[in-house]
Amino acid sequence: MKKILFSILFFLLTASVLFAQTITDKLTIVTEEWPPYNYTVDGKVTGLGAEIIYELLKDVGIVATIESYPWNRAYLMAETIPNVLIFTLARTPERENKFKWIGKISPREVGLFKFKDRKDIAGKNLDDFKKYLIGVTTNEDATTKYLISQGFVIGKNLIAEQSANAEQINIKRFFVLKRFDLLPINELSLSYLTKKMGYNVDELEKIMVLTGSDDPGYFAAFSISTPDETVKKFIDAYKKMVDDGRYKRIYDNYLK
Question: What is the CATH architecture of 2-107+216-253?
């Protein structure tokens, strides 16, 4: 009986190791420079999203490197190449069937901000703000896509920054250079970046929320052609992480 149990345990352990090795050989993990969710310090990607991914990798039992790219490139890789894990990705209706979703990184609330002293900027609905210049990020950014879907046009009322540090560049242009009138931005990112860059977020006023209360949030997801067995391993690891409290501890640490 002991020999049978030992054989079963040995088989399960061996299968787990082989599975982990197989994933490691094929897995590519991509993100962008977007503090505080994902950003590079001393050559290693860290941040809220990255910490969650590292925990998932530990639970699945594999070692892998997170690569940081400009968002358009990271998104294209996840959209077209098998076995690519991408984060931090807004889960939108347009993207729903393009990826295999693992779990939420954080809620998503994107506000439209102006300076409080800009009394000339006013409106009751989104269309009212089409006469102003709005600073957005890359073409594959969910907020940029949403505004375009609502009739805004890059080069007319949208000024798009395509570089890897687009959000930081836009904040500097907003506060210092006054290049545009309005800034759509995630509130956690705005709070973190203004503090880090030495700007006073109290100078700003949120005039509209661009995401609804039913917005799914920011997620980690696999490319659509990734094997279901791999995806399930990560989904199970994510559920375990939520259940044992690790997710909440990581998330709460970035709200301080």
Answer: 3-Layer(aba) Sandwich (3.40)
